[in-house]
Fold each of these.
Amino acid sequence: MTKIALITGANKGIGHEIARLLAGQGVTAIVGARDEERGRAAAERLGQPYVRLDVTDEESVAAAAKWVDDAYGRLDILVNNAGISGGHTAVTPSATTTALVREVYETNVFGVVTVTNAMLPLLRRSESGRIVNMSSELGSLSMALDPESPFWSANLLPYNSSKAALNMVTVAYAKELADTPIKVNAACPGYCATDLNAHSGPRTAEQGAAIAVRLATLDADGPTGAYLDDSGVVRW
Ligand code: NAP
């Protein structure tokens, strides 16, 4: 049976590559995007369906869940990919506004909870539901505290703390769903050249997408509640 996947923020960047790679494996990769024109254009490029979805807008998320239900009756893979940086130029924590932190959390944390809760009834109908949350090494408390880590100096309060929170969100869902076939994992794509960081990363979006695709297509004996990159387990 053809697997059905929904990827949020799939009109560009890593999300677009996740959709492309999943479609290449025969998965129906629904392109979730907030902007109808750009979302439809991306879906057309990929030959995949489009659904409008703004992760910060509960109504649009509920409408997207209804659309998936009407079209397919279930969901096998949810990739919570949509994310924002809150600005990639470093601002000290003390100069960061609460409004910016709130804005970043609305997408990177609360948006994931909104989308996951809306899609869970559909994922429960799958024989092998998979949820992949796009995290970052910048969400690792261990690396943030390790002066030897390449991520030590990137002290970006809104983004880093949002991804640390997302890691706990991942663990919380994995624990609730431990007795079901649904696996919930956090993926680290590595530092990839995308609009998120003004294309400063050394990796490609396709390289970044690979770990998400692997976690989206895990076998029944694969991990849940894990934080992984291409090389394996990432320190929380
Ligand atoms: P990107 O090119 O900026 O793409 C971000 C995507 O998220 C876009 O499609 C964007 O849509 C979408 N988005 C943002 N807010 C949204 C909302 N409210 N509702 C729906 N979609 C929304 O960034 P990327 O690098 O591919 O990032 C993808 C994910 O990987 C993010 O979660 C990011 O934190 C994570 N990540 C990236 C890197 C990296 O080095 N690039 C490293 C670690 C983790 P619009 O086009 O409409 O803005």
Amino acid sequence: MTKGAGQLLGAAPDKPVEAAAQPRPAKGGPPASGRPSKRTLLGRERTDPDRRSGTRDMASMIALADRAESSALPDHHFYLPRRSHGMALFLLLAYAFAGGVAKAVPLGLPLAAGVISVALFAAGGFFAQLERRTKMLKILRQGLLALAVVLPMACAGYALGSWVEAGLAWQWAVGTVVCINAASAPLFGVRIVSLFCAKIAIWTGFAVIDPSVLTVSALLGAALALMLVARIEWQAAEARRIASDARDRVAARAEDILRSFEESGQGWFWETDRRGQISYISPSAARVLGKTVAQLHGSHLSEIVDNTAAAERTLAFHLSARSAFQDIELRAAGTANERLWALTGRPVYDSYQNFCGFRGHGTDLTEKRRSEQQVTRLAHYDALTGLVNRVQMGELLAQILAAPRESERNCAVLMLDLDRFKQVNDTLGHPAGDALLKQVAQRLERTLDGIGRCGRLGGDEFQVIVPGTHDRDKLSFVAQEIINSLSQPYTIEEQNVVIGASVGLALAPVDGSTTDELIRNVDLALYAAKDAGRGVHRFYHKGLHSAAEERAELEKDLREAIASGDLELYYQPVVYTATEKIVGFEALMRWEHPRRGWLSPEKFIAVAEDAGLIDQLGQWALRTACADLARWPEAIRCAVNVSPLQFSKTELPTIVANALAHSGIDPARLELELTESVFLNDSAGTDAMFKALKRVGVRLALDDFGTGYSSLGYLKKAPFDKIKIDQSFVRGATEDGSRNGAIIASITSLAEALEMDTTAEGVETHDELELIRILGCSHVQGFIYHEPVSAEEAGALVAGDLSARADGPQAARSQRQVLLKRVFVGHEGARMAATLRNISEGGAMLDGLWNLPAGSAVEIEFGPSARVNAQVRWSVEDRAGVEFSEPLVRREDGTFAILGETKPSLLRALAS
Ligand code: C2E
Ligand code: CA
Ligand code: CA
């Protein structure tokens, strides 16, 4: 049923369900449902004939549907109107009046004719149905027309004509015929043919009472005139109908388009009355507001948007000024998730130019704005870390350098590079690498704490811009803080990961007044920091340009040296502490550079690592050491350094095994020295590599212990045979108040428990050797016995009785700065004067303080506002050694600086 109605409305077959079933508002009253017709928006009521007289009610809609069901043809196509009993009633009344006026009723044929006319019109509904139900031929339908229209009208005319003879005044009879004709006009409406037939028929019936030539010719003339008029009328009606159909189709199409637009959620419509109260709003907009259309109906337009925005005032202005407005951005009122709307509207006037209200549409901008923000974020921010990206950092820098006032063009640029990040990425996978970068970004932001802007340039490269003028001490401090913070262990996928960071610094405008220049120079500074052994920071200076060139040259020379075999292996004896006998060597690379002379591996190993030459060099060292070792006594071992980059390659065990097989030596005579950086992740790959190397049968030594993030946990896990205590630990162990000794002692006892050897590296003085002995190191390697020697000399050494003789200075020159300075020491509320005897970054020795308990906290006052917190480490008579809770910064000129109360900018120098 509804389908037919839809077709009738000219809508798409699947759409009109709603249209047909939609209850229409009653005439003049409020809408039947909460949803006013969209046709009001389209102004359709002007064109819909059914709606011209008011709105359709449900019953008429159903009737409409019924009609549509019977035929797809429009109703005016049929000759007979659906009902004509009104006409029957009208005739009865006309006859009754005629009877009353004439006081007589004609009997016989006229009476029968009268009855027939009434009866046929009364049965008009039946004939109409018959015409519509059956698919009749036109001729049959014309027969029905004759039966249901022509015949009763002719009968009525005949009855009235005959009545004249029975005494009815002829004027009355003619008047009645005219009235009946008039009554037939609304009955037949646009059915021009039927109306014409009815009129001819009644006059013909009337005329038969005087069948003269004159009557017949008058009748024919009238019929002709009527036919002419009917034709003109018919054509006009047909033209109106076609125009109306066209309008209906346009309206239906528009309605359909608007409905699908509303349903698509892209926009919605609204309309207000002259007071600004909503008279129509799309259901989709009501849904956003969490209300029904009925609830919104009657509320003021300004109530559906938030009251705060300035845009809301703009809206209020337009509504009161009755002016059109476009795309005013407003927030939908009372929505939990913010919804942004763009509202467009224009005033509506009726044909008398009376203001009727506003009509317009709204679009939802929320998604658009969100995606715009997303695009901006992608364009300016790094998606992974959320930091500013390279583009934005570049813009920021350019902005500073182009500041209108010269004083505002100062800034510092810090370029950061993560050491060993690539290894984490390679061994733990990219998701772990990503997680690490995120944590790095967080730490970086926390460390900077707003003093600068940090961004990620890509990969493991980060950049910091600190605006303003700052002295180098402060910047050094900031750089070191960053390095310290980034070098703390990370937990990633439940694994401990340690990386380092190198920082390069350049200052604008001294180191460059354009972005390009500054970036090139800060890159050089970073390069210098990496070159200096990583984990440090370096400022840009002009010499770096030549350093960079030098480095490129060095790389070229190194390639040539490798190709022409200009490298040599030197061997430094390792002495067994208890017997003072040489038990082995450490192989150390040497390169006699054609122009620069002998170069330390510290200079060229990093170059080899960066240039991808380390594998080649490492393999050469392994083969050469094994070959040399094969010539030396069985009891002698040799250690070879293995770069972390070599360790990360799965072929390492095979390479080692090949070198051993080639020289034919016992694998247990070869020791591989690895640094803690191989543990920067606890990955399965590291464990597998250890196992594979152990299967080859070589010994493993943990080199430079104490320099990285030495975790004793590594020692338990990895199958080391030896720990090499770094020389920086040995150095200073003999000094008063140093904790190095205690640390060495605990390492040696742990190593003993784990059945590992210990080698103290870099022992130079007799004092150090003595201490190392006391602390229980099993081996010593240092200049006190031997410097690294050539293979030839090493051969000569092992040809003898292997005994080594300690030869060196008694004690190392103290690193401490000796001075005499008056300071104040605060202890448990008391303020005591003391003399500063010496000072280093980590602590100081004070004179004049009696019996300060070890472990107690003190505050040392170097000057009016230069205070440092410290802890008493030892105390003998009136002397005390204190350790600063925050290490001081040693400056290039030898003075010390301390961190002020708040920011590094408060760094103050202490007189030396
Ligand atoms: P390392 O493995 O810690 O080697 C010990 C370094 O300390 C050697 O420096 C050695 O000459 C030096 N040294 C030994 N005793 C003393 C002492 O009493 N006082 C002082 N001041 N220094 C002492 P070298 O030969 O310059 O080597 C530096 C570093 O280069 C080595 O440190 C090692 O990390 C690396 N290296 C050397 N040869 C190789 C190699 O074949 N492969 C790899 N991957 N790295 C190597
Ligand atoms: Ca070593
Ligand atoms: Ca070492």
Amino acid sequence: MTSIPDAKAPAGEVVLEAIGLTKHFPVRRKLRDLFSNRKDAVHAVDDVSLTLRRGKVVALVGESGSGKSTIARLLAQLYPRTGGDIQLHGTTTKVKGGSAFRRYCSQVQMIFQDPFASLNPTHTIRYHLTRSLKIHDNAGKSAADLDQALNDLLERVQLTPPERYLDKFPHELSGGQRQRVAIARALGAQPEALLADEPVSMLDVSIRLGVLNLLRDLRDRLNLAILYITHDIASARYFADETMVMYAGRIVEGGDSETVTQSPAHPYTRLLIDSAPDPDRLSGDAAAAHQTDGEPPSLIHPPSGCRFHPRCPVAMDRCKTDLPVPLEIGDAPGHWAACWLYDRDEVTT
Ligand code: SF4
């Protein structure tokens, strides 16, 4: 197989699903704690469920330390999970190192934030792409097949003519070109899902849009399911079909991107939007928004009840004790928030 075919499978089909995904990192014990039974852990991800579908982008938005990248690494099987399930086409991958695991690793590819760190500076672009094609059995049978596959990969990420790039080293490319090479390397596996962890945050502002447009083109032409991790909620509106907002290890709001970004329901989502730079907003409004900023909580001892309650400007008594469940919001189908403000029983009693 030498070229990457445009996908024929129907858009919307579920590719990858996380169900109640949980990850706790044990904290190394201090000398004085050695004789106690205390076992602290960082509650990085708790009970997260999300679904990636063919031809759709899901954005996972939140501030640093909220657990977004941990979710990507769990889905890429780079970390073992503490709890929950990950299913590719409805099947759990159990055995690390088996053929099902290898198939999973081909079909679910990750794109990292820093394209320079993710490419080996001592090897050419040809080496990186050839390795990916060979590992995933997509290099074809002859040298001509391999050349064709390399050209196809570079053309697919709009690095043309391919011969201008194949024998360059990563340091000879711009940041945007390096990220395109990293995307081409992921495509060498012919994946069904891409996990893009802040793929444009280290690039110059002027070239971010080009890389996002490329990912959107791949979504449409290859019918890829894409998880887009970002702290920039404005780019989620532009790029993603669905947006999920994460705070302190939990998803707190979800829905289609237009609704979540234009009619945010959860107080944390509103805070994120108010905190985004907006030249049209007068300084008085911005200052008022930032009065509630506060600090993210410790994930070793996360707050009880709603984890956002110490920062929430509208917290109620029950927020300190009761963990909010996902509640439907208004008329927009699929829009929900984990916030007691939307508990109809609470409102009517
Ligand atoms: Fe604020 Fe309570 Fe809603 Fe949490 S559940 S966001 S504390 S109102």
Amino acid sequence: MTARPLRLGVLISGRGNNLQALIDACAAPGFPAEIALVVSNVAGAAGLDRARAAGVPVAVVDHKAFPGREPFEAAVTAQLEATGVGLVCLAGFMRLLTPGFVERWRDRLINIHPSLLPAYKGLDTHARAIADGARFSGCTVHFVRPDMDAGPIVVQAAVPVAQDDTPETLAARILTSELEIYPLAVRLIAEGRVAVEDERVRIRDGSALPAPAVNPPPGA
Ligand code: GRF
């Protein structure tokens, strides 16, 4: 018997590249998750058009229509519960979440962040990595905790920083990896292979390691 797909709720505010990666992954035969609902707090978010084009249900919950964060989040949770969502994926969702929402969805709420956490939490990650002369930056999928950009790490990708990178060129290179690791993290969770133990993620049958990367490469 095949397990029922994990139902995803994807929260967005903008262009929706990561949403598109999840849409595409879920469309592949045998992928163990499906998108039940896309929620945007911005009515004009381009990601909503991506969802509609894929036939995915959408809801707009405009934070400006609510008197505070809690009632806004209660409306989001009501939408997610009504569609039977089992995992909430933040994908460029530009609202800070209260501890109440984070605890409501504890270990069922993940985020993608464009740095190798715990380095470069917050905004302007690429400009800060370049300014520091970092040789690598990258991206992280993690379970969400009340502190911003904190929580058990599910998957990371390390991405080299080029000497002449601008924040835009580095962002584009890292985005390519984001679009790979977000579906990977969702698949691992949906397959039941991800456990949070003492605030660290253990992945069942996930012990093989990639080759180390060196930048500049030896012999450069
Ligand atoms: C991505 O860089 C993601 O890491 C960050 O916000 C951006 C969203 O981009 N959290 P998109 O909406 O997926 O194109």
